[in-house]
Amino acid sequence: MTQPSPKDKQELILQATLEMLSSNGFHGFSMKQLANRAGVATGTIYLYFKDREALIAELHSRIIEAFAEAAFADHDGALSLKQRYQRICANIWHFCINNRAITLSKAQFDHLPTEILRSQRQAAWQQFQPLRDLFAEGRRQKLIKDLPDDVLGSLSFEPYMYMASQQLLGVIQVDQTQLNQIMDASWDAIATGAEQVRN
Questions:
Q1: Short-list 81, 80, 105, CA closest to 28
Q2: pTM over 0.90
Q3: Contact between 103 and 168 (Cβ < 8 Å)
Q4: How many Cβ atoms are within 10 Å of 127's Cβ, its own excluded?
Q5: Is the Cβ–Cβ distance between 79 and 34 less than 8 Å?
Q6: Any idea which of 35-49, 115-129, 139-153 has the lowest mean pLDDT?
Q7: Which phi and psi (to 5°) does residue 144 adopt?
């Protein structure tokens, strides 16, 4: 039987961490349990990550990268501002629905130690430069409210992540018609309404 490569072992550890986070929470498992889930020796984890915090920080960074890649997968600058925004919203919704463990782990990542969240914030925003550009363009054209990127991002995308988690848990069921209505409401939350006036 072929032994996993070092890179494969690291991926196995990260995937097992994500699965255990989504079901057990940040403090709901030991490194020994994690090693058993990943199929590696406990000591192997420490070859790649100095401690639990470093492991979680790396996983968080990987998730942000995957999230951003999905959000802007079919970015098209020729579309209107609203169309570009809603395409990003739809991409985020589908990413959340198709990545159950990531979506259900979000609350755990929101409660990471402050220093980890602060250190990763700048890197995260770099991944989301197309979104920052869209917000800046919208503010210049007075189509988007003159609010900071963090506020606009929270108004825009936090609801999708929450609703996706509720759907994955079977609490709600959003069909395509409702998703379209939600995307219209999402745009209304950040738009000035000037686009309607012009039309």
A1: 105
A2: no
A3: yes
A4: 17
A5: no
A6: 115-129
A7: -120, 140
Output DSSP code: residue 191.
B
Q: Which pair of tokens denotes residue 93?
A: 């919704």
pLDDT of residue 70: 95
Side-chain-side CA neighbours of 179 within 13 Å: the count stands at 19
What is the spatial distance between Cα 43 and Cα 23, in angstroms, rounded to a whole number?
A: 23
Cα-based distances in Å from 93 to 24, 73, 152, 179: 24, 13, 17, 9
Residue with tokens 């999402």: 186
CA–CA separation, 7 and 103 (whole Å): 24
Partners of 144 in the β-ladder = 191
- Residues of the chain above pLDDT 90, percent: 63
3-state secondary structure of 144: strand
Containing H/E element for 132? helix 129-140
Tens-place pLDDT, residues 163-190: 999 999 999 999 999 999 999 999 999 9
Q: What is the mean pLDDT of residues 146-151?
A: 95
Angle between helices 149-168 and 81-98 (to 10 degrees): 40
Which pair of structure tokens corresponds to residue 160?
């999708």
Question: Torsions phi, psi of 191, nearest 5?
Answer: -80, 150
For helices 100-110 and 6-24, the axis angle rounded to 10 degrees is: 70
Task: Using alpha carbons, select from 129, 127, 135 the residue that is nearest to residue 156.
Answer: 135
